[in-house]
Write a structure and sequence with these properties.
28% strand, 27% helix, Alpha-Beta Plaits, 11 helices, 2 domains, alpha/beta, Rossmann fold, six-stranded mixed sheet
Length: 356
Amino acid sequence: MEQTAHSAAPQGGEAGDGASGPELAVETRALTKIYGGRDATGRRALDAVDLAVPRGSIFGLLGPNGAGKSTLINILAGLVVKTGGTARIWGHDIDGDTRAARAAIGVVPQELNLDSFFTPREVMEQQAGFYAVPKRERRTMEILEAVGLADKADAYARSLSGGMRRRLLVAKALVHNPPVLVLDEPTAGVDVELRRSLWAYVRRLNENGATILLTTHYLEEAEALCDRIAIIDHGRVIACEPTPDLLKRLDQRTVTVTLASEAPGALTGQLGALAPERAGPHRLVFRFSGRDSGIPAILAALQEAGLAIADLATEETDLEDIFLSLTAGDGEDGGRREARDPMAGTVAVARAGPDP
């Protein structure tokens, strides 16, 4: 799959060249979707969502089930009609310049929605026909080769494994050379080896100019791939920052020390001042900010107390910790959460609405 992946990167066409173009590949302003009416009785799936996806980025869109991610993607794909606000893809308004906006985006859905009696070659040719790609410009075998399906080009889709079908969906989304590729849970239900292979392929597409919008529940995947992440909850964007900045939000480290002998009943001196948690007769857990002296202070305190170390393990904040801290439960003020305005870089207050 990795040998010829470079050949399937966006190369222009009606959608434009992935290596140049507008500063923002995708932009939404006050994008709103209310199901069941436009008044307060309807379900507000999206509540004035502002997003700015820079050209050439791998942009992660995270959130719990029902947060509004699929609604947002379906609006961009033209499958759901928005209630209010605006959305632009590659500079094209989805309402005012619908044809160009559709040509600029390729969507890989979460569902394996393939006709069992079509071959990969037929699937690709049919999709190219939908986008009016002239036969002389079609790259069916080139793309199938890139995703490792050239040898299955004439096999019925029903005979393909789940992982192969997932790769065929990626290939299908690339037939019209879109500069923007949306991957909706691309590795859901696939094995570890295929997941790593897909990660490598996504990176190659991005290196060759494609802007990637990725939704995933594998937070390790988002942390490894995305250079910027937005977290959406209850239809509102509650965080949108470069991944390193997002990971600094908690800035907490945990050190678990296993002692060679049982810890004393009373912890005094430097050790007592660090206030470790007891995780067993021989185990102490220290939590501290990355700005604190941390491990050197812990080692000095243990030496002062005359305690020998049998083992020491450290754990740093990861994306899962941040995600849970931002989305788990309502705050003490009745659902108000601090959220960063992704367009202006300022701090705003987001109120959680009904779960869509």
